């Protein structure tokens, strides 16, 4: 009795084995893909980093009126305490940014914020000093009126841009704006109101 397997039958068995192996590999890849997708949408879902202004202090204020020329010479320096919270389970890398000091919609002071990284579920504190560039205020017609009224309206604006990398990089931009008034006579900050926004 001849027990030798026919060539056609051997090829059929070989093809079945190849099909089984392909099915197993495909199933494993799909399973891993589904697992990563579930983790990406739940545990590792990208969350928005939040930038907050914790404190604003007036470290220097010098106001002098030139009544003859109806001009104001103004020097203002603000110390700002900022915190950036990263609620993600992975690090947040941010690029070079800038904090601005604005007077009635015009940029009158700025300070750079160097690029960096905030670890998973970590918070970084930034201490910034914003100084008014006096030459940018000379042509502003509202300054004289505001100085005489005793109240100077300013706004701080910080925009930070970066990436959160989970399964792929997610672009994130955070915005922080604080409206505040400087009481010239009392040399204090009043009516401070801050707003925060993050965009994925």
Automatic annotation (TrEMBL):
Matches recorded under Gene3D superfamilies: 2.60.40.1820
Query: Could you tell me which InterPro entries the record lists for this protein?
Result: LEA_2, NDR1-like
GO CC term, one of those recorded: membrane
Subcellular location(s) per record: Membrane
Coiled-coil parts of chain: none
Question: What UniProt keywords apply to this chain's record, in alphabetical order?
Answer: Membrane, Transmembrane, Transmembrane helix
Main location as per UniProt = membrane
Which parts of the sequence belong to the Late embryogenesis abundant protein LEA-2 subgroup domain?
82-168
Keyword Transmembrane assigned to the entry: answer is yes
Could you tell me the superkingdom of the organism this chain comes from? Eukaryota
Do you know which Pfam families this protein is assigned to? LEA_2 (PF03168)
Segments crossing the lipid bilayer: 21-44
Q: Does the keyword Transmembrane helix apply?
A: yes
Q: What is this protein called?
A: Late embryogenesis abundant protein LEA-2 subgroup domain-containing protein
Q: Which organism is it from?
A: Penstemon smallii
